C-alpha cells in the first residue's frame, strides 16, 4: 500500500467522519432544543457539550486511520468489499448488514463491560460517562483509548466478510444514527415501538439512558441480545417524562429571570463522582 495514498485517505476520512458527526449531531441537538426546550440548556450542560465535541472530533481522527487502511486496500482490490450487487446472492445484501451490526454489537458489549472494570474505567471509559446526562454531541465522545478499541472492528471485518458498498453505507448510517439518538436524553421513537416488539430487540435512548444513570446494566449498542443473555438488561427507562417536566420548569424559571438554574443533575461542572463502575 502506498504511504501517500494511505495518508490522503486518512485526511479525507477524518474530514468525512468529523463533518458527518457535526451534521448529524447538530441536527439532533437542534431538534432537542425545539422539541425539549431547556433539557440541555444550562451553562453546565453547554460546557459539557463543548467537551463532547472536542472528544468526538478526536475520535473522528482515530476512526479515520484504520478506515483509511481499508479504503486504500479496497482501491487495490484487497478487501472483501464489492461494488457489483450481483457478485453475491441478493439475500446477502440485508443479511450482511445484520451480520456486521451483530458482530459490532458483540464487540461493543464485551469491550464495554471490560471498560467498566475498576482499573479500566477511569482510564478508558470515564470520559464517556462524564456526560451527565449525555446529549446528541456525546455520540463519539470517548477517550482516545476507547476510540481505539472501537476503531478497528468494521475495517477489519471488511477484509474478511463480503459486504456491498451500499450495505456498508447502511451499516455506517445505522451506527451514526443510533450513536446519536441513544444519547439525546429523550426518546425519539414512538412509545408503542419502544414498548413493543421493536424495543424488545433494538436498543434506543430509553435503554441506553438507563446505562448512563446506573452504570451497571444495559451495555449493548444496537440489540438487547447480549444484555438479556448475560442478565445485564434492566429494561427501558420509564422516567424520561419526569426529567422532561423538570427541564420544562427550569426553562420556565429561566425565562422568568431566574438565571442559570442548573440542569437538575445535582452535579457541578462534572466534579461530582458518578456511581461506582459495575465490576
Ligand atoms: Zn453512551
Ligand atoms: Zn458505559
Automatic annotation (TrEMBL):
Annotated GO MF terms: iron ion binding; oxidoreductase activity
Ranges of biased composition (kind: Basic and acidic residues): 240-257
Keywords: Membrane, Transmembrane, Transmembrane helix
Location in or out of the cell: Membrane
Keyword Membrane: yes
Residue intervals of the Fatty acid hydroxylase domain: 97-232
Transmembrane parts of this sequence: 6-33, 54-74, 90-110, 150-178
Coiled-coil blocks: none
GO BP term, example: lipid biosynthetic process
Region entry Disordered, spans: 237-279
GO cellular component terms attached to this protein's record: membrane
Main location: membrane
Highest taxon of the lineage: Bacteria
Record field: compositional bias (Gly residues): 258-271
Pfam families from the UniProt entry: FA_hydroxylase
Protein name per Swiss-Prot or TrEMBL: Sterol desaturase
